[in-house]
Amino acid sequence: MILTDYLNKESAREYAFRQIRDNIINLEFMPGITVSAKNLSLELGVSRTPVMEALQELSKSHLVEIYPQRGCVISKINFDTVEETAFLRRSLEKAIVEELCDTINEDGILKLENIIELQEFYINKNDSKKIFEIDNEFHHALFTMCNKEQTYILMKSIQGYFDRIRALSLNSVLDIQIVADHKSILNALKKRDKALCGEVIVKHLLRYKFDKKEIIDKNPDYFVDSNKA
What is the pTM of this model? Predict the structure, then answer.
């Protein structure tokens, strides 16, 4: 389990939720394994109550399954759920980049260029976790520049399922297109071309489908009924 420091004014429950969720998404907790509130509380340095509350919250987004008397299982991945959460994200981000065509300024363009340069650096280092982290930073920046921070927070709260597929794609697929996609998004924004922006962001967020077979072949135990997924 990888732990980070408390955020400013973060409660024990919020800390436990964030740490467990991040470790699920980053695949430190593999799909299908059993975890216990007792062991998690010891690792996190908090009591069992905030851990149980965090697990209950994570169960709402189907990242964990809680079984009385048996413990808590990190949910295996069901592609039906992936498709639903991915659809929501595509719909929101398409609207975001189309709106951003009207409002992005030179500072915003420079910010996105800097993020892409940082991504290229970590791709050369073959650091999939940093690539994933900076990928999130790129998409977060799009929402922030549109003054849609609360929309991003809402989307993030239900994107854990989709984020695990993104993490698996970075870990499993050698031909990473993430930087090329982000450059295409940025170029479309520079042209203020709403149709092109919508097209490239949707293609980018559908890329996991191209990698689907390879991801499942390399990680069959992570999926619900992977032969039919």
Answer: 0.87
Average pLDDT estimate for 175-180:
76
For the stretch 23-58, pLDDT in tens is 999 999 999 999 999 999 999 999 999 999 999 999
Q: What is the enclosing helix (H) or strand (E) of 63?
A: none
Same domain for 217 and 142:
yes
Residue 191 sits in a domain of what CATH number?
Answer: 1.20.120.530
Which of these, 30, 82, 218, 212, lies nearest to 1 by C-alpha position?
Answer: 30
22 and 100 housed in the same domain? no
197: containing domain: 79-222
In a domain, 51, yes or no: yes
Half-sphere exposure of 144 (CA within 13 A, CB side): 11
CA distances to 39, 99, 162, 209 from 80, rounded to whole Å, are 31, 29, 11, 12
158 and 138 within one domain: yes
Give the position of tokens 């964030």: 18
Number of structural domains found in the chain: 2
Residues 199 and 174: their CA atoms lie apart, in Å, by 24
Q: pLDDT per residue over 109-119, tens digit each? A: 999 999 999 99
The H or E element that residue 73 is part of is strand 71-74
